[in-house]
Amino acid sequence: MGKYLSFSIIAIKHGYKNKGETIARFAFYGIILLVFSSLWNAVGSEKIGLKPRDMIWYLAMTEWIVLSYPLIHTAIQEDIRTGNVAYLLTRPIPYIWVKFFEGMGTLLLRMLILAFAGFGFAYFITGGLPTNPLGLLLYFPVGIFASMVVTLYQSIIGLFSFWLQDATPIYWIFSKCNFILGGMMLPLDIYPEWLQKIAMLTPFSSFLYLPVKACLELDASLLLEALIKLTVWAVIGLIAMQLIYLRGVKKLNVNGG
Amino acid sequence: MNLKNNYEFFTHLLKINLKSLTSLRGAFLLQATFMIINNLVFFTMWWVFFKKFKSIKGWEITDLCALYGVVAFVFGVSVIFFGGVRSLAKMIDGGDLDVYLTQPKNTLFYASSSQSHASGWGDVVSGIILLWFSGYLTFGSLPLMLTVLFCSFVVFVCIGILFNSLAFWMGPMDSLARQFYDFVVTFSIYPQVIFSQFLKMILFTVIPGGFIGHLPVSLLREFSWSNLGFLVVGSAGFFILSVVVFNRGLKKYESGNRFIGVGTN
């Protein structure tokens, strides 16, 4: 395990040096919250049963995950496109696990920095804490767990580069599904019932909507449901990642002749 | 160099870029198709939103449809014709402009149109679909539609040039320039009736998303000569500013000695 953690630590050190990107993410976080606070002020979120203040905190919490997870697929597809993967595969540790743990390092650093941004911007815009402030403390570990599962699925997307060279189109769909079926901007409660049912069958609602709603409402049963679902999707993701990776490596061997 | 020469050069470059894109037909179709799905899925958020709220200060779902249509179309056309703009900061910092400086063509024009992105075709198609569904795309409105789309396109390309040209003075800022670009897109796709006066002012100056989405759609909703004049003057202003800033920056450009490597690989 120590060798994997070393890759995470290297990624943290690398990410720490990349200050420009961190500042941009920080600013983007503030802008998104500002845009949506303007929107909710214009239409009034009371119509969907949520106080405007809680609505902004909801968005701050979902965005914390979305802005933190690293785009591992771009690193994987770059390795495959440039041929670097041939050298990386000869290491005595599986290539995909190296990428995954590097991603974890980047993720944890971003989550730590953006936690301050999210809290600061949301507090500044709303002028106070959410209805259940304790939920914020609870959300810290839950949000990190959810982000780790999202990062796992990001790694799986990258593995499709073995077949497609460029996995970006799959990432587009993944991010938009997170957006819509995950309830990133709008809580699933306001969706038509049939769309809510579809969303709850996908992993996306477990990534964003369920953990955020459970913590914001301090609902123990909903939190348990969120954690169980996240664990199930994590196990499915781990198995899928290993299977796709083994197939992808075989495909690369065939191409290499 | 006269206009005719520039035009011929541009069309040849476009043909080469298109050939290069379609040489990997599968990847081209995949990118274009997934971009269409991506844009249309994104728009479902507004469909859900307007199921609950009938309008946002007078803006209805058809107006949002037009807003997304304009931005998607303009974004698509800009990355098809001037896909190199997004890489300008990287070219400047890496000394990769050498290749273009040694050619008897305008450096900015050549470097900007040297790349084309397949996903842009998906943006163009989804833009047309959204404009069609908005109801604003009619035979009678075509001249106005083309005018506002052209102005929006000019602003979009020019702010890309402006952000990326900062690399002449600030060095490595490829990632930051892209983020600025994303800020502009983010602000362009929301109706500006929701923003305060101060934010509106920013949206027509520092982050000029107002010229890209809001003003063109406002003109389609309700035509006014003053707004059209504002859009035309604004786009002309951004065009002049971007060319001046790029040319000023070019004087500070440091060669990457790239021309030595041309043709030696």
Summarize the helix and strand pattern of chain A as letters.
Answer: HHHHHHHHHHHHH
Q: Overall mean pLDDT score of chain B?
A: 87
> For this entry, what is the oligomeric state of its chains?
heterodimer
**Which class do the helix and strand fractions of chain B yield?**
mainly alpha
Distance between the termini of chain B: 31 Å
Instruction: Kindly state the number of beta strands of chain A.
Output: 0
Q: Level of helix content of chain B?
A: over 70%
Q: How many structural domains does the protein architecture of chain A include?
A: 1
Order of helices and strands of chain B: HHHHHHHHHHHHH
From the spread of the alpha carbons, the general shape of chain B counts as: globular
Percentage of residues in helical conformation of chain A:
over 70%
Q: What is the topology?
A:
The complex is a heterodimer of chains A (257) and B (265).
Chain A: H1 2-17, H2 19-43, H3 52-68, H4 72-82, H5 85-88, H6 95-126, H7 134-159, H8 161-164, H9 168-180, H10 193-201, H11 203-207, H12 209-217, H13 220-256
Chain B: H1 3-23, H2 25-52, H3 61-81, H4 88-94, H5 98-101, H6 107-112, H7 119-134, H8 142-165, H9 167-170, H10 174-188, H11 197-202, H12 209-221, H13 225-250
Helix pairs in contact in B: 2-3, 2-7, 3-7, 3-8, 3-12, 4-8, 8-10, 8-12, 8-13, 10-12, 12-13
Give an overview of the whole structure.
The complex is a heterodimer of chains A (257) and B (265). Chain A has 257 residues and is mainly alpha-helical. Chain A contains 13 helices and no strands. Chain A has helices at residues 2-17, 19-43, 52-68, 72-82, 85-88, 95-126, 134-159, 161-164, 168-180, 193-201, 203-207, 209-217, 220-256. The model of chain A has no long low-confidence stretch (mean pLDDT 88). In chain B, 72% of the residues lie in helices and 0% in strands. Chain B has helices spanning 3-23, 25-52, 61-81, 88-94, 98-101, 107-112, 119-134, 142-165, 167-170, 174-188, 197-202, 209-221, 225-250.
